[in-house]
């Protein structure tokens, strides 16, 4: 069908174009959707007859002749290209020549669902370098999956997610899709008996979190020990490991200040969509709540949030209280300058201070035997995070992050994130 104009009410409105929410008839009588519905209804009733509009038919093998006709002077109106009937259903999976030297006997056989920028730039290389066998990469369109499959040495690439979840050769599933699909895929993978690594967040709602908890219990009751991991990589960063070591000998409550110069994202970015991305606090703020929970080493007893009055509502101050009397603040701000460091963490404890700048320089103030360490390049722990997960699979150990901590951090984050929408 040829629509007379692509502009008008609904153009560039994600609610209309992506989610299918049509405008009320009283506001716009003939939207694009209603025009299509009217045409289809008239064709079905015979009021609109399109067959007389067809002037030529060509086999797809003769398609060049059809285009020559259009470009030439001979009269033509509607031209149909005819395809032969399929005798064999098309396969949604493409076998690839392996380029990795990893032996097939390794116990961690990883398949990845999602092949976006972060997956191909960070996560897939991290799992490849961890020693895991890369089995299948699945993508929605197939193009990015084919690229990732060839580049990183996967055995196959597919657009059929179900085949990945049900693949008997796959022992672990890595989920890097958009946030609204995480809960569903996590539960499907656990029920299929796979170890699961899901890029944050674990889920978007408290109902989804309760369903994941119930699924975990259900699978465990069958005798399978579910291994679930969320990509909270910062707790695996080398300088965070050093901070944990230094804090281990400190008694008494501590104060944590995490400042995140997040930078702006437009209101129509998918991560800002409550139903798809969950908003930036749920989608990214969970990283920093998990980091402070890890450093405190005890459960979060209370949490609250203050929100800057702005259209995107993604500049917030989150306050955390811990069971041992420690306190934490996460300043997640989108209204700062790019010239300012992106992430800074400060810990005040027992007359001493630790300061971590951008996961490169760690400085100690008043710390016996420690002054500073500096890395040649930033390391937020992504590779160590993937390696810890693969090592747990190889050794038959539990997930590197206890399941109860994943539930706790996710619950607190969702509660704070939901508050920002009010």
Task: Write structural notes for this entry.
- This protein has helices at 14-17, 32-45, 63-71, 117-129, 143-152, 161-165, 182-191, 206-221, 238-247, 280-296, 382-395, 403-420; strands at 54-59, 78-82, 93-95, 109-113, 133-138, 156-158, 172-175, 195-198, 228-230, 255-261, 300-307, 316-322, 327-333, 343-349, 352-357, 361-365, 372-374.
- With 422 residues, it is an alpha/beta fold.
- Strands 11-12-13-10-14-15-16-17 form an 8-stranded mixed β-sheet, with helices on one face. Strands 3-6-5-4-7-8-9 form a 7-stranded mixed β-sheet, with helices on both faces.
- It starts with 13 loop residues before the first helix and ends with a helix.
Short account of what is shown:
This protein has helices at 14-17, 32-45, 63-71, 117-129, 143-152, 161-165, 182-191, 206-221, 238-247, 280-296, 382-395, 403-420; strands spanning 54-59, 78-82, 93-95, 109-113, 133-138, 156-158, 172-175, 195-198, 228-230, 255-261, 300-307, 316-322, 327-333, 343-349, 352-357, 361-365, 372-374.
């Amino acid at each position: 069908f040829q629509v007379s104009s692509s502009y008008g009410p609904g153009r560039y409105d994600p609610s209309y174009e992506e989610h299918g929410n049509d405008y009320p008839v009283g506001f716009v009588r003939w939207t694009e959707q209603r025009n299509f519905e009217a045409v289809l209804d008239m064709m079905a009733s015979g009021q609109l007859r399109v067959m007389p509009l067809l002037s030529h038919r060509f086999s797809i093998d003769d398609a060049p002749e059809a285009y020559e006709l259009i470009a030439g002077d001979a009269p033509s109106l509607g031209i149909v290209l005819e395809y032969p009937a399929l005798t064999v259903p098309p396969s949604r999976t493409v076998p690839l020549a392996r380029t990795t030297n990893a032996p097939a006997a390794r116990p961690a056989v990883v398949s990845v669902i999602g092949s976006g920028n972060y997956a191909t730039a960070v996560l897939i290389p991290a799992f490849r370098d961890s020693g895991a066998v890369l089995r299948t990469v699945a993508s929605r369109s197939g193009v990015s999956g084919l690229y990732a499959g060839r580049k990183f040495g996967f055995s196959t690439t597919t657009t059929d997610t179900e085949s990945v979840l049900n693949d008997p050769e796959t022992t672990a599933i890595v989920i890097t899709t958009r946030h609204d699909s995480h809960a569903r895929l996590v539960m499907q993978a656990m029920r299929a008996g796979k170890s699961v690594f899901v890029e944050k967040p674990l889920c978007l709602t408290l109902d989804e979190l309760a369903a994941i908890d119930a699924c975990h219990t259900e699978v465990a009751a069958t005798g399978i020990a579910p291994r679930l991991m969320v990509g909270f990589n910062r707790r695996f960063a080398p300088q965070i490991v050093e901070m944990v070591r230094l804090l281990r000998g400190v008694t008494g409550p501590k104060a944590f200040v995490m400042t995140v110069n997040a930078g702006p994202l437009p209101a129509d970015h998918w991560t800002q969509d409550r139903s798809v991305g969950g908003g930036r606090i749920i989608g990214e703020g969970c990283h920093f709540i998990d980091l402070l929970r890890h450093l405190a080493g005890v459960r979060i007893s209370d949490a609250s949030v203050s929100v800057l009055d702005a259209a995107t509502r993604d500049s917030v101050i989150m306050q955390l209280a811990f069971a041992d009397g420690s306190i934490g603040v996460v300043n997640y701000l989108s209204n700062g300058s790019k010239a300012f460091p992106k992430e800074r963490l400060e810990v005040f404890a027992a007359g001493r201070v630790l300061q971590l700048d951008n996961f490169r320089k760690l400085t100690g103030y008043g710390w016996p035997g420690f002054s500073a360490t500096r890395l040649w390049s930033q390391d937020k722990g992504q590779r160590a995070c993937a390696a810890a997960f693969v090592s747990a699979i190889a050794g038959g150990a539990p997930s590197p992050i206890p399941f109860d901590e994943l539930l706790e951090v996710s619950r607190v984050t969702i509660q704070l994130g939901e508050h920002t929408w009010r």
